[in-house]
Amino acid sequence: MKILVTGGAGYIGSHTCIALLEAGHSVIIADNLCNSRRDTIDKIINIAENEVTFLEIDVTEEQAVDVIFNNYKVDGVIHFAGLKAVGESVDIPLTYYYNNIVSTMILAKACQKYGVNRFVFSSSATVYGDNIVPFVETMDLLPTTNPYGETKAMSERILTDIANANPEFSVALLRYFNPVGAHESGLIGEAPNGIPNNLMPYVTKVAKGKLEKLRVFGNDYPTVDGTGVRDYIHVLDLAEGHVAALDNLKEGAHVYNLGTGQGTSVLELVKAFEEANSIKVPYEIVDRRPGDIASCYADASKAKRELGWTAKHDIITMCRDAWSFEKNYED
Ligand code: NAD
Ligand code: WQD
After folding, report:
1. Which of 151, 245, 289, 299 could form a disulfide with 172 if both were Cys (CB 3.0 to 4.6 A apart)?
2. 140-175 pLDDT per residue, tens
3. At what angle do helices 199-207 and 315-328 cross, to 10 degrees?
4. Does residue 268 line the site of ligand 2, with CB under 6 A?
5. What share of the chain is helix, strand, coil (3-state, %, to 5)?
6. Nearest ligand, CA of residue 297?
7. Which atom of ligand 1 is nearest the CA belonging to 192?
8. How far apart, in whole angstroms, are the C-alpha atoms of residue 289 and residue 89?
9. pLDDT per residue over 65-104, tens digit each?
């Protein structure tokens, strides 16, 4: 199939493009490079030994999106393009609501106009809010604590309503848990601008000596060692999850958790990183970070049952691959 991958130059999108190419699909990337680099496109081509079409386009611009669908026979869309910094979304909510929701609506509209019925959407476990773990797809969603999370819940809702009204429209709403790691080549990975907000990129910067020490946000949560527990998933497994979702689309909108089902605490992750890479990660315990929850991990059984997909990489491999990328990466 010819798949339009919005945000395909980004962290998860680039790994997914490789997985799609390796599975025999062809790929058109639409990305405005607001949080990614053009040279990632060359790296995708090198790793997958296959061509991709790259269009530097803002997918909130309806005309530009129309031109894509008019010029290429698109069989399906994977919509990664979006802004994702939780803290920033509190400071500039309108930018987040506009970018993340308008892009979803414009792409869905183009799909309707051009008869494209396959749509895969990047959602997030954040839509569960502070629910009881493990998170299951059938749970009622709780409010998230930030505009970013709301854009995901609203986009899910919009796509579900469209699918309900147009039964031939097949949508997979993929709720990612905490993606980490990088391609085993060390060529592509997560490269946030400035000081990272997320744990793994912060840890790799500390390991590299770019940051002095990790601040562990709270050790008084009701968890195994008091630090926050998350379901870290290797980005390569996540990428394969998209291929599986695309191959198993069915009429209507269907939600899938993409996680491992395993919780790992902050201190367990630090220990795994030190073990995997024989490198010390100095840390100190500081106050809780506002908006954080104690535990977040998936019930990953639906994706296994319906998509035939399960995550394969363990936390040691995630830490090893995250570090291989960071070691070679020039800011
Ligand atoms: P990323 O920032 O690396 O990739 C997003 C890409 O979208 C970037 O290349 C950016 O340039 C592009 N983009 C943003 N707005 C655009 C627009 N209007 N038009 C065209 N391109 C645009 O982020 P990522 O980690 O790869 O995340 C991909 C998707 O997955 C996002 O929707 C994100 O919200 C979602 N998600 C990410 C995580 C995570 O922890 N990384 C977790 C859950 C969900
Ligand atoms: C993980 C754990 C922190 C940094 C976020 C978004 C979520 C999704 C994934 C997009 C927590 C602790 C972190 C640090 C720390 N993104 N931590 N020191 O908060 O689970 O999820 O990214 O959809 O929506 O909210 O991920 O990596 O920030 O934190 O102690 O410097 O690490 O408290 O327990 P989070 P994270």
Report:
1. 245
2. 999 898 999 999 999 999 999 999 999 899 999 999
3. 60
4. no
5. 40, 20, 40
6. 2
7. 3
8. 16
9. 999 999 999 999 999 999 999 999 999 999 999 999 999 9
Tell which atom from ligand 1 comes closest to the C-alpha of 190: 3
Task: Compute the distance from residue 197 Cα to the ligand 2 centre, in Å.
Answer: 7
What does the pLDDT read at residue 193?
Answer: 86
pLDDT digits (tens, 9 = 90+) for 264-300: 999 999 999 999 999 999 999 999 999 999 999 999 9
The DSSP bridge pattern shows strands 295-296 and 252-258 to be unpaired
The span from the CA of 158 to the CA of 163, in Å, is: 9
Q: Which residues are catalytic?
A: 148
Say what the pLDDT of residue 331 is: 77
Question: Which residues line ligand 1 at a C-beta cut-off of 6 Å?
Answer: 6-7, 9-13, 31-36, 58-60, 80-84, 99, 103, 122, 124, 176, 179
> What residues contact residue 196 under an 8 Å CB cut-off, 6+ apart?
202, 205
Question: Does 157 sit in the ligand 2 pocket, CB within 6 Å?
Answer: no
19, 240 contact by CB (below 8 A): yes
Q: Domains of the chain (ranges plus CATH)?
A: 2-181+232-259 (3.40.50.720)
Question: For the chain, how many helices (H) and strands (E)?
Answer: 12, 14
Q: Which atom of ligand 1 is nearest to the CA of 58?
A: 19
The pLDDT confidence band at residue 207, using thresholds 50, 70 and 90, is very high
Residue 137 CA to residue 300 CA, distance in Å, equals 9
**Residue 189 vs residues 147, 248, 270, 308: alpha-carbon distances, Å:** 26, 27, 19, 26
For residue 112, give the amino acid letter.
Answer: Q
Ligand nearest to the CA of 188: 1
> Which of 96, 230, 231, 273, when mutated, tests ligand 2's pocket best, judged by the most ligand atoms within 8 Å of its CB?
230
Give the predicted TM-score (pTM) of the model.
Answer: 0.99
For 254, phi then psi, to 5°, come to -130, 135
pLDDT number for residue 330: 82
Backbone torsions φ then ψ of 120, nearest 5 degrees: -120, 130
